[in-house]
Amino acid sequence: MADLLTVDQFAQMLEMHPRTIRRYIRENQLKATKVGGEWRIRKEDAEMFMGSKIDELKSEAMDDIQAFMEGKDSEVEGKLQVCTVLDCYVENLEALKISEIIMRHMNQADPARGKAKFQYFFDEKEKKGRYIIWGTPAFVGKVLSAVGEAVQ
């Protein structure tokens, strides 16, 4: 089951509403299989879908980073806020594993997390996973440490 994503997991990775992901499935833009009455998306299919949306995702990510830098529309709360871009030059399966590490931290009930945000995409041409993480310095530091430990 570790190679399958739920609609909610995939939606969170893409910062989309689960209904949007289900619509992509219904419209055959995204391959998925029903398991126990719930849609599951294979990691390979998730990567193919994200690859086809790479330019759109890059543009949205740049807009979000620019808005953060200009102090506009921050979804992160608190006195101290961080936005970081992590590029990992790895194959797509390893990039998905890194994404899973970040998602585990995003989904944990951790007071240091506060309100946080995460975007991920994989650029097949560059063989690069790009992870954009917003949150408190303590939370972002914890996530980056976990990724660093896992990759070494």
From TrEMBL:
SUPFAM superfamilies, per database record: Putative DNA-binding domain
Residues annotated as domain Helix-turn-helix: 4-45
Pfam name, any one: HTH_17
NCBIfam families with a match to the protein in the record: excise (TIGR01764)
Protein name: Helix-turn-helix domain-containing protein
Organism taxonomic ancestry: Bacteria, Bacillati, Bacillota, Bacilli, Bacillales
